[in-house]
Structure formats: C-alpha cells, structure tokens
Amino acid sequence: MLSRATEASSRTALQADPHPQLDRRSFLFCAASAGLLCGASVLAPSLRAARPASSGPSQDDGPFTVEARFYKKLANRKIQCQLCPRGCTVGDRERGYCGVRENRNGVYYTLVHSRVCAAHVDPIEKKPFFHYLPGTQAFSIATAGCNVNCKFCQNWDISQSRPEQVPADYAPPERIAALAAQTRCPTIAYTYSEPVVFSEFLMDVADAAHRQGIRSVVVSNGYIQEDALRQAYGKMDAVKIDLKSFTEAFYRDVVAGELKPVLGALVTLRKMNKWTEIVYLTIPTLNDSSAEIRNLSQWIRDNLGPDVPLHFSQFHPEYLLKNLPITPVSTLERAREIALAEGLHYVYIGNVPGHPAENTYCPQCKRAVIERFGMEVRQNHLRRGACPYCKQAIPGVWS
Amino acid sequence: MHSAPTSRRTFLRSIVAAGLAPGVAVPVTETAVKAQSPARSRVVYAEDPLLRGVDPGGSIGDSRLLSLLDQAMQHLFPAAGPFQPWDHIVRPGQRVALKVNALGGRGLSTHSALVEAVCERLRAAGVAARDIVVFDRDTAELERAGFRIAAGGNGVQCYGTDRVGFTEDLYEYGSVGSRLSRILTERCDVLINLPVLKDHDGAGVSVALKNMYGVIHNPNKYHPNGCDPFIADLNMLPELRARLRLHICDATTACYEGGPAFKPEFTWRPNALIVSQDPVALDTVAWQAIERKRAEKGLKTLEAEQRPPRYLATAANADHRLGMHDPHQFDLVRTVTRS
Predict the structure, then answer these.
(1) pTM for the whole thing?
(2) Cβ distance of A58 and B163 shorter than 8 Å
(3) B120: nearest Cα among B155, B76, B153
(4) Fewer Cβ within 10 Å of end Cβ, chain B: N or C?
C-alpha cells in the first residue's frame, strides 16, 4: 500500500465517527496515523460539528444546493454549462456529465456546495507539490463528482458517483477555514475527486481561508474553460495539473476528455503567473512511449518553461484498468531521463518511495537541495529559496 | 378481478405490419397473426381512444387500462384469456421488480394505474404482493410521480434505489462500468420494464433501452454522443439481461419534444401501450410514433435535429444483438379498442 498512488482518498475516515459526543466540540478525534506514508488514514477532523449528522443515501439536497456561476440559459428551460470544455447542454431535471449539477426549471445548480465527502490532513508532498511549502500539511477536502471518467481513477468511488450516493457532511467555507486553522495547516487543498466540478465551493472556501491567512492549492485535471479557470483558480496559491497523456486519442479513449483544453489551461496558468506543477501518471503501453514523453517534455519547455516541476508517477491497476501491470521503475527512469535531456530542470519520480528522483536537485551544481522519502521531507537545505552550495535560485513557493 | 369488463364491445383491429413501416394500415386476419414466425420479434401497439372516457382531458379509467393491458399481452403471446400471457413472464413464487420512469413527475411518468394493472396480473400469476417491487432511482421522485411509497409489510413494495443503495462491485461491458441497483441484483428474479414514450434531448428518444439508465449509479457519464454506444452496452450487462423479460411502454401520455422532462406544451395523449420482449423493436416503433407526431406538429425530424436515436443500430448490431432495429425484421401488431 505504501506505493499506491498518492492522492487516494479515504473517505471512510470521515464517515466512521465512533465518538459523536466529540462532534459538537469540533475536536479532532484521530491522531496522526503511524507515519504519514500510508497516504490514507492521516487525520479525520470532525466536520459534523457544523450540523447534525447528515450522511446517508436520502440526504436532503437543500443545504448544498447553490445556483451555479458558470452557465447560460437557453430556450425551453435548457441550460448550457460553461464550466468545463464539455459544455453540457442540460435539459430540465437533468444533470451534466459531472453528475453534481442539475437543471431545475431552467436554473442550473451545483449540488455539492459545502458537501464534503472526504477531509484529511495530508503532507503537501502527497498532492504532490514539491516546490510549495515543503514539509507542511494541507487540509485536504473533496466533494463527489468529476467531469471526466479516467479508467484508471483511484478515487472512482467518490469521483464517479453522484453526491447523494456518497456520505457527506455539511461544511460551509468558514467551517473549512476554521478547521484548517485548528489543525495548523497553512494550506487548504482541493483534491481527491475533481475540484473543477465544485468550483463555486472552492472559490468561497479560498476567500474564507485567505481572510484567516490560510492559502489554497488545487489538484486538478485542468479540464476547465478559460473564464472559469481565471475566476476559480485565480484564487489559488498553487495549482497541480494531472496531465493524463500527450495524445488526443488517450484523452478520448481512456479519459473521456480532450487534451487541447488542458494544454490551454496550462498556458493560461503560466500567463497568470500561477505556481504550477504537473503530474504525469505513466501507464504501461498507453502513454509511456519515448516519443510521447519527448513531445510532452518539449511542449512544457517551449510553452511553460524549464522550471515547471514534472512528476512521472507510477501507475497501479484500478477501476476499469486492471489489466495492466504496475509501471516498471525503469520506465519512470527512462521518462525522467528524456525530460531532463529535453532541458527540464525539475523532473521527479512519484509513488516509488526511496527513489533518488524524489529529491530536488539544483540544476546548476546538481546537488540535492531537498531530500525526501515518500511524502516525508528528510532534509531541506534551501536558503531563501536558493541552493546553499552555488546560490542558484530554485523556483517555487518557499515561504 | 381477473377479467376485463364485459359490458362493452371491444373491436380489435389487428394489423400486422411485418415488412411495413409502423402506421401503415393493412388489415389482416387472426390467421395472419398466427402465421408469424415465433423467431421474429413482435411489438404490440394497443390503443384505446376512449381510455379517458369521452372527455379527452379526463382521467384514465383503471378498468379500461387493465383491459388495454390484457389486449396488448394477448397479442404479444396469443392467448384466449388475460392470464395465460403472464405464464411466459413469471412463475409462482418469483420476485419481480417493476422499473418505472418517474423523472417526469405526475405529468409524464409511468402511470400508477398501469403499475397497478401489472401488479394485478402478476398476483394472479402467483407472485406474492410483497415480492413485487416498484422502483426507480429516487424515492422522492417516485412520490412526485404519484406513487405511494411502501417498504415492508405484505403489500406491493415501492421505493427508490436510494433506500437500498448500489452494489459495491462494478459491472462492466464495453464502454460501461457501473454499480447496479441492489433492487435489481438482490431483490428480484424477474425485471419488467415500464418506460414512458418520450423524446430525449440527447438520445433522440427515451423509451425501453434508455430506461435502464435508472438502475445504475452513474447515468450522467453515458449521455455524450447521443448515448451511443452506452445505452446498448449497458443493456448487455448479464445481470440485466438475465432478469429482463418484458417491456411495457406507457404511451397513455407521451412527449414529442423537449424531453425527457415534462413540458405540457409538448405532450400528447396516444392512450396506448406498446408491449414487446424486444426492446430494440419497441424503441423503433416508439421512435416512429414520435416522428409522426413531430411531423404533425411541423417539427423537424430527429435526424434533421442531429439527434436520431443512433443507439438503436448499435443495440441491434452483431456485437450486441439486443433486438431488431429494421422494421422489416419484426412484426408490429396494432390494436384499437372501441366501445
């Protein structure tokens, strides 16, 4: 389990509440798990203090139903969603592809505002962010839903479900910010499922958190329309994009999405000067060819610059893609070598704890400036964001 | 309870349209009906213009609807009486689930009177009332559609999948990977499909095959590309096919535009039932009924609107073989009840 993909959620930690009497006090009822490497049962902050337990299949939608911000009204009570590039046209009483937005009499609603189905305190390295406040914790939340359907999804039980099918708790933005403060997390992370589909909630939480001096980061597929991206992710302090592959065919057949809008989102984030890291889940035979890795690396170098961290993560069979093996470490190493040869400065290998490519190396003197083991930072040698040995500036958000 | 009212004369005009487009009136004899090959699919379109009495805006007469159901079933499984056809569907002691469509509220959902009529015949066939479950996705939706919720006790059960949830496991075929309603997998031996005759803004039409979207946890994932090939792939799941015995489309009220939600301005009252064991043939007949109404209203064809029900050809192809899409390859029996 240690090497499982890092962003798997553990919503059961939130669901199973053996100490209801503690809820009303907003206590954190779980201590840190044995080590942070397990990636699942870290902390389970009680969100139920905000309201009586609301989990269950017949949960009332009312508290979570807020008019969506990114759509336009059409004739005959239809609407067109303007949140993601899919641009669903949704008839009355129907939902969009994401399953968490519903047209009710010509008005489009998100059903997941403040509807938190997973909440944990994770190391920021779990996202993974390697150039953003290393060694800190992120209060990490998710709602149900996703705007694509990756066959390899590790969190499909929440991402591919409708909100009413997933036990959740009412956790309004101020409550999330307060819990992050209580758990001494400098950052709130929107993650596990697909934050694009809960953009309104994300924006409101980010505002509430910023008022308390807490930052926000998002872990996203980047499949979002530009206006929504600018408005929603404009509130983020850093963004991690899961780039699923570098071919449209893969996006069509394995992701049920499109590559081009994701690349457009990455360029937009660059123009917004938003700190961005990229994860590339490397899947044997599907997106691991040397040519594809080379094209990907060249595109990043030419369009985003050489300083964007690129993480090649190890694939594990999940969901609808169980017929392929775990990615060999040699494949990840080959991908890293190609990316480095194409001029990228910060190329990592993920989901392989103890691999030397988990460390950050100075591109100038090649010495390790941040040493990691799995999601743990063992040594951070940086001095004011620079290599202590040769003074080379290392880009990132360090303080 | 076992027989339709006998006080009125019922004229049955049977038209077998084998090889002809639906709606082409070719009078045939009972002999011609019996001559059909048993291997061919059959669709019965049973209409009662006086289903609501002399007032077209009136409410449906329960006994007339039961009689209409009997007429339809006796032409699907040629039989002299109203009970024998059900022997083809259920055996005594089996558990039966009735998948209705409650999306359209009271205006455009499976009519509760039709469900009651089916339950009456199932009970007569030896199915205990408590072993019948009327269901759709959501209990509140069923209530809005006019169903009385019942869970427990000895009567007919009625509740949504939200009450019992979905399977933990995923069931996969082709493009589809879904969790299934536990009502389907754990509480029934036989599934009877009771869809509504509806236009659909994505699939073109939403009738028998599309109604199975209501038994999975993630129907929203399967609307792109006119729901093709998702509808066909979903209906290939063995857990569905092993249980699905009969499709009874409620065409008492139907929708020719703006579906699947209820929009009164786009509904009409065919006062009919469409019955078949072949969902592809049934959907083909339903599509053509909708096209005729659209033409009557001066609307474009679904093809011209870029939303023909492409899923039908997929459902009929060699990879699926869920039924017959070509009207030349199934028999359409039309009956009209007059009194």
Answers:
(1) 0.86
(2) yes
(3) B155
(4) N
Helix (H, G, I), strand (E, B) or coil at A386: strand
Residue ranges of alpha helices (H) inside chain B are: 30-34, 62-76, 112-124, 139-144, 182-186, 230-235, 238-241, 279-296, 311-316
- Residue B12 predicted with pLDDT over 50: no
ipTM greater than 0.95 = no
pLDDT exceeds 60 at position A370:
yes
* pLDDT confidence of residue B53: 87
Any B CB within 8 A of A351 CB: no
How far is the first Cα of chain A from the last one, in angstroms, to the nearest whole number? 32
Q: What percent of chain B has pLDDT over 70?
A: 88
**Span B34-59, average pLDDT:** 81
Can you tell me whether residue A86 is helix, strand or coil? coil
pLDDT of amino acid B110: 98
Q: Which residues pair with B276 in a beta bridge?
A: B43, B247
How close A284 comes to chain B (CA, Å)?
A: 21
Among A47-61, A180-194, B177-191, which is the least confidently predicted range?
A: A47-61
Q: Is B134 exposed, middle or buried (0-12, 13-18, 19+ CB in 10 A)?
A: buried
Residue A29 above 60 pLDDT? Answer: no
Strand ranges, E, within A69-220: 71-73, 79-81, 89-90, 101-104, 107-110, 115-116, 118-123, 137-142, 169-170, 187-190, 215-220
A104 in reach of chain B (CB within 8 A): no
Q: Which of A332, A313, A360, A312 minimizes the C-alpha distance to A39? A: A313
Which pLDDT score is estimated for B80? 87
Strands A79-81 and A89-90: antiparallel
Instruction: For residue A29, give the amino acid letter.
Output: F
**Does residue A254 contact residue A244 with C-beta atoms inside 8 Å?**
yes
Q: What is the pLDDT of residues B34-43, one digit of tens each?
A: 444 446 899 9
DSSP state of A132: B
Please say whether the beta carbons of A86 and A194 come within 8 A: no
Do residues B303 and B288 touch, judged by C-beta distance below 8 A?
no
Q: Rounded mean pLDDT of chain A?
A: 88
Cβ B336 vs Cβ B12: under 8 Å: yes
pLDDT confidence of residue A3: 34
Contact residues, chain A, for B218 at CB < 8 Å: 99, 160-162
Helix (H) or strand (E) holding A302: helix A290-303
pLDDT at A386 over 80: yes
A76 touching B (Cβ < 8 Å): yes
Half-sphere exposure of B68 (CA within 13 A, CB side): 34
pLDDT at A360 over 70: yes
Does residue A319 sit at the B interface (CB-CB below 8 Å)? yes
**pLDDT confidence of residue B16:** 40
Whether residues B261 and A99 touch (CB distance < 8 A) is answered with no
What pLDDT shows up at residue A58?
Answer: 52
| Residues A86 and B202 sit within 8 Å (Cβ to Cβ) | no
Chain B interface residues facing chain A, Cβ-Cβ under 8 Å? 103-104, 138-139, 162-163, 165-166, 170, 172, 177, 201, 217-218, 220-221, 223-224, 258-261, 263
- Residue pair A187/A216 in contact (Cβ under 8 Å)? The answer is yes
Does residue B4 surpass a pLDDT of 90? no
Q: What is the pLDDT of residue B299?
A: 98
Q: Classify strands A360-361 and B15-16 as parallel, antiparallel or unpaired.
A: unpaired
Q: What is the dihedral of CA B113, B116, B117, B123, to 10 degrees?
A: 180
How many angstroms separate the CA atoms of B222 and B116, rounded?
A: 31
